[in-house]
């Protein structure tokens, strides 16, 4: 039987370009909740043993990931200086994902229609199974749904932070183990 759910043992979380230069394009009311959900997802991934690969586009020009994301990343996480739109086009980042020897990549970050979509398509092109999360990605205006539609049409699994979390958790025993690690208020827009 084929397992159509994403698994914590087969997944890598890729956090793409959560930088002020891109966040500032979004309506102000959407910025902090989006960052909050991405940070919560990073903490959930760490609690469940899902490796996190982080990157930021042209750090010298655009700056590093926002402080909240940098603080949520596991200690020692390398933040790749992404010089391409689709992460699969940069050998070092692709090697960073491949080093974990997992077949699935879950994408969060910015911008849905450019770097997230191009990363998703590139990863599919080199054989990964890919999910993009509607509430952990963003782009201004109609660009967000257009990016999701483009990815869906190419075979990317479109899900949510809640959806992927419960796919990674799978059972009540794991939920009971992980829940205390994620205690505290949920970020805006996330209901478990």
CATH superfamily: Isochorismatase-like
Count of β-strands: 6
Give the low-pLDDT segments: none
Ends distance:
28 Å
Overall residue-averaged pLDDT value: 97
Order of strands across the main sheet: 3-2-1-4-5-6
What is the beta-strand fraction? 15-25%
What characterizes the major β-sheet?
6 strands, parallel
Order of helices and strands: EHHEHHEHEHEHEHH
Q: What's the number of domains?
A: 1
Helix share of residues?
A: 40-55%
| Radius of gyration, taken over Cα atoms and rounded to an integer in Å | 15 Å
Backbone shape: globular
Structural class: alpha/beta
Briefly note the CATH topology name.
Rossmann fold
By DSSP (H or I, 4+ residues per run), the number of helices equals: 9
**The level-1 CATH class:** Alpha Beta
CATH architecture: 3-Layer(aba) Sandwich
Question: What does this molecule look like?
Answer:
By secondary structure, the chain is an alpha/beta fold. The protein has a single domain, classed as 3-Layer(aba) Sandwich (Rossmann fold), CATH 3.40.50. Helix content is 43%, strand content 19%. The protein has 9 helices and 6 strands. It has a 6-stranded parallel sheet with strand order 3-2-1-4-5-6, sandwiched between helices. Strand 4 (104-110), helix 6 and strand 5 (129-138) form a beta-alpha-beta unit. Helix 6 packs parallel to helix 7. The longest helix is centred in the first third of the chain and has 20 residues, at 28-47. It is globular. It starts with 10 loop residues before the first strand and ends in a 14-residue tail after the last helix. The mean pLDDT is 97.
């Amino acid at each position: 039987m084929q397992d159509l759910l994403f698994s914590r043992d087969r997944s890598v979380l890729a956090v793409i370009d959560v930088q002020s230069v891109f966040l500032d394009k979004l309506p102000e009311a959407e910025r902090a909740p989006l960052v909050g959900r991405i940070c919560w997802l990073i903490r959930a991934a760490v609690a469940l043993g899902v490796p996190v690969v982080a990157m930021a586009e042209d750090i010298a020009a655009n700056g590093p990931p926002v402080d909240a994301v940098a603080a949520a990343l596991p200690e020692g996480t390398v933040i790749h200086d992404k010089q391409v739109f689709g992460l699969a086009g940069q050998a070092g980042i692709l090697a960073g994902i491949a080093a974990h020897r997992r077949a699935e990549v879950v994408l969060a970050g910015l911008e849905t229609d450019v770097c997230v979509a191009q990363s998703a398509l590139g990863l599919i092109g080199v054989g990964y199974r890919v999910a993009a999360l509607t509430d952990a990605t963003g782009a201004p205006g109609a660009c967000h749904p257009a990016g999701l539609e483009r990815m869906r049409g190419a075979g990317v699994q479109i899900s949510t932070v809640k959806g992927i979390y419960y796919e990674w958790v799978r059972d009540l025993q794991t939920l009971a183990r992980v829940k205390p690690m994620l205690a505290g208020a949920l970020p805006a827009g996330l209901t478990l």
